[in-house]
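Hi C.,

You asked whether I'd gotten around to modeling the 84-residue construct. I have! Everything is below, sequence then structure, no commentary in between.
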Amino acid sequence: MNQINPAPTGSQAIAINGSERWDIYHRLQELSISCQCSTHQLLTVEISSPNSLIQVWTVVKRMTSSRESLIQSLKSCWEKSSVY
């Protein structure tokens, strides 16, 4: 199970299973979001703004969701946008 737990310093410790943790770490680095990841440790991410929080949430969701779930979310967005 993936969880985001608050830490007192404005950082978030994220428990991610498997190699997804390193993929998320590298993607957050590409987005210039401060984070740390060591072997057998939780991924720690510095959340400095609402924008960085949304970026972290999006990266984690994209990396940990199944392909089918992502397709369904995309279809749902298309349906909602065609209503307007």
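If it helps when you're writing up: The chain has one domain: 3-83.

Thanks,
B.
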